[in-house]
Amino acid sequence: MAFALSVHANPTVQLSSLAEVENALGRGAPVSVALDLAKCNPGAGATSPGTVRGGLKIDAYRILADGTLSFADGHATVDRSGQPIWQFLRYQVKPDQAVTFTMDVFSLPSYTRKAEQISYACAVNQGIAFFMN
């Protein structure tokens, strides 16, 4: 007797609030982030509005005593001149839905700071969106 196995892919669902994001993470659901700096306000170190878009899957995270969700991503890449760099990206999502995005860049292999830290102020669903996969 043969059995048919039906596999249904879970649809991607946009999470509309910090509470929904924390609930999904707390259940162990995979959560991804889409960032569009053009929809964020430049902060410290940023000389102009951002044009970068990108995303990541949240791996490790912390929920602080004040309700802030904090997570980060660090990775090696190359700069525009082809030199190896390390980028460290940090996200802090406040209970009021405000999001601070910061980026630090270091030269490799020395890990010396290549540029001043830059930051952007975004908001959930205004420059940054969360999805449960």
From TrEMBL:
Protein name: VirK family protein
InterPro entries: Uncharacterised_VirK
One Pfam entry name: VirK
